[in-house]
Amino acid sequence: MNVLFLCTGNSCRSLISEAVFNHLAPNGWHAISAGSQPTGKLNDRALALLASKGISTEGYYSKSWDNLPVTPDIVVTVCASAAGETCPAYLGPVLRTHWGVEDPSHVVGTEEEISAAFEKAYAILRARIEAFLALPLDELKGDRAKLKAELDRIGHIEA
C-alpha cells in the first residue's frame, strides 16, 4: 500500500509525514511525499528535527506530484492549499483525506517559539500516523467508505 503525503511546497509537513510514516510502517506499506508547487529544497529545520528523533531522511527530496515513482493508493493532504487543489488526473479514483497542520516554517518569533512550532507539527503528524497504523488495515482495505471515514476522523486528532 502506497500513501502520498501532499503539500504545496513539499519541504516541511509532507516531508515529516513521509519520514515518520516510513519509520513506523509495517512491511508492505510505504509513504512518499510531493508538492503541487515544490520548493525544490527540504526545510533544514524539519531535517534537523527528524534527525533528532532518530528518523532517517536519506534519499528524500522535494518533488512534484507530476513525477511520482508510484501511483498512491491513499493521498493525505497536510496543508489547506493542497487540500483545495485538484489532484492530477493520472491519480484516478485515489482515496483522499485531509490532515491539516499549521506550517511551522512560516512561524516568526524567537528560536524557542519556532522550535516549539516544529515540535507541535511533528507531534500532531506522528499521533495521526500512529492512529492510522493502529487501524485494522487488512479489514478496512476492502471497505473504502469505512477506511475514508476512519482517515477523516484521524485528521482531527491533536497531539
TrEMBL record:
Domain Phosphotyrosine protein phosphatase I, first and last residues per copy: 1-135
InterPro entries: Ptyr_pPase (IPR023485), Ptyr_pPase_sf (IPR036196)
The UniProt record lists the keyword Magnesium: no
Any one Pfam family match given in the protein's UniProt record, by short name: LMWPc
Superkingdom field: Bacteria
Record bears the keyword Disulfide bond: no
Biological-process GO terms, alphabetical: response to arsenic-containing substance
UniProt entry keywords in alphabetical sequence: Arsenical resistance
Name recorded for this polypeptide: Arsenate reductase ArsC
Originating species: Massilia forsythiae
Lineage of the species this protein comes from: Bacteria, Pseudomonadati, Pseudomonadota, Betaproteobacteria, Burkholderiales
